[in-house]
């Protein structure tokens, strides 16, 4: 009996599979330890026992991170499939045990969780109250690995202009322009025609430096000779942005759909300033080739209907 046969029969377990997938996603012992909520020595020890048991090297240790070997890539590919099947099995067993029609696990952007997901939940409750919906909020940095690992079935997130890797399928739902917003009663709201120069005296709430929308926003500010305020907040959290607007004179750069929602509640006002080409492409992302249940098909259909019924971009000031 070879090392591989012996280890597969006696030593391999789900913990090893989860570790392999996490190492492939994060390429760093430190980041994997944080993701799996274990110590770094525990990650290193588990990987060492796996490589020793199989008598093969699964990862190269390089200056820029961990790189799977050819053998490691083979094992990781099958580990993803096994973990995905186990997640499906777990979900089906729970549904049968609790007499549910189905379940869907969604990973969503913070902006989508404010408006799009509540509408989806309301529609699904009206059509099939026995469908269980699990919602996890995150950025694309966390949602794509969650899709790979089978932790979520469908991501509602930002679609990059460049195609995603072949392992993912995607569909554009709508385009959401980014606008400048302030609280109701803000000094800038009282101006008949606020200008970019008027923004200079107020704090700003911006996307983080690595966000897709940050660079075009920075370019617009630079074009209007506005230095980034030292009094600024950087966040991807929609609720943190809106909450900060309520209690400060800050200016936030948020999606138009979010501004309209909170404007209808009397909380924020959009400024009539042009932000050309600063637009979020919101869409659905899922693993290519995955077997969809009726709950998955229903979710996608309802999301399309909800987005088709949403108002167009219009004029920012109308928000």
Structure, explained:
The protein has 319 residues and is of the alpha/beta class. The chain has 3 domains: 3-81, Arc Repressor Mutant, subunit A; 99-174 and 280-314, Periplasmic binding protein-like II (D-Maltodextrin-Binding Protein, domain 2, 3-Layer(aba) Sandwich), CATH 3.40.190.10; 177-279, 3-Layer(aba) Sandwich (D-Maltodextrin-Binding Protein, domain 2). The chain is 45% helix and 21% strand. It is built from 12 helices and 11 strands. Strands 3, 4, 5, 6, 7, 8, 9, 10 and 11 form a 9-stranded mixed sheet that branches. A two-stranded antiparallel ribbon has the order 1-2. Helix 3 crosses helix 4.
Index terms:
alpha/beta, nine-stranded mixed sheet, Arc Repressor Mutant, subunit A, 21% strand, D-Maltodextrin-Binding Protein, domain 2, 12 helices, 3 domains, two-stranded antiparallel sheet, 319 residues
* Percent range of helical residues: 40-55%
Q: Per CATH, which architecture of the largest domain? A: 3-Layer(aba) Sandwich
Task: Give the number of helices.
Answer: 12
- For the record, the CATH class of the largest domain is Alpha Beta
Quick one: biggest sheet? 9 strands, mixed
| Class from helix and strand fractions | alpha/beta
Helix and strand pattern? HHHHEEHEHHEHEEEHEHEHEEH
Low-confidence stretches: 314-319
The CATH topology annotation of the largest domain reads as D-Maltodextrin-Binding Protein, domain 2
N-to-C CA distance: 70 Å
What is the radius of gyration computed over CA atoms, rounded to a whole number of angstroms?
Answer: 23 Å
Cα shape: globular
Tell me the name of the CATH homologous superfamily of the largest domain: Periplasmic binding protein-like II
Number of strands: 11
């Amino acid at each position: 009996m070879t090392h591989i046969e012996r280890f597969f029969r006696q030593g391999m377990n789900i913990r090893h599979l989860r570790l392999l997938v996490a190492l492939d996603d994060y390429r760093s012992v430190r980041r994997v330890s944080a993701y799996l909520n274990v110590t770094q020595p525990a990650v290193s020890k588990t990987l060492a026992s796996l490589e020793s048991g199989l008598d093969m090297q699964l990862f190269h240790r390089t200056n820029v991170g961990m790189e799977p070997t050819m053998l490691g890539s083979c094992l990781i590919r099958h580990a993803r499939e096994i973990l995905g099947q186990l997640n499906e099995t777990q979900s089906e067993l729970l549904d049968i045990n609790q007499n549910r029609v189905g379940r869907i696990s969604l990973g969503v952007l913070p902006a989508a969780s404010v408006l799009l997901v509540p509408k989806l939940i309301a529609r699904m409750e009206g059509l099939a109250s026995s469908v269980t919906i699990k919602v996890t909020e995150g950025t694309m940095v966390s949602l794509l690995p969650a899709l790979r690992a089978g932790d979520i079935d469908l991501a509602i997130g930002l679609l990059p202009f460049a195609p995603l890797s072949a392992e993912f399928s995607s569909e554009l739902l709508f385009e959401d322009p980014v606008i400048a917003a302030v609280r109701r009663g803000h000094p800038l709201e009282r101006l008949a025609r606020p200008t970019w120069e008027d923004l200079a005296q107020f704090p700003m709430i911006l996307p983080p430096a690595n966000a897709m929308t940050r660079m075009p926003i920075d370019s617009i500010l630079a074009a209007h000779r506005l230095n980034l305020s030292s009094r600024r907040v950087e966040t991807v959290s929609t609720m943190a942005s809106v909450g900060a607007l309520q209690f400060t004179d800050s200016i936030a750069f948020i999606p138009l759909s979010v501004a309209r929602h909170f404007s209808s509640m009397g909380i924020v006002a959009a400024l009539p300033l042009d932000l050309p080409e600063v637009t979020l492409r919101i869409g659905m992302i899922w693993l290519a080739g995955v077997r969809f249940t009726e709950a998955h098909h229903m979710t996608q259909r309802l999301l399309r209907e909800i987005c088709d019924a949403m108002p167009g971009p219009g004029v920012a000031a109308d928000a």
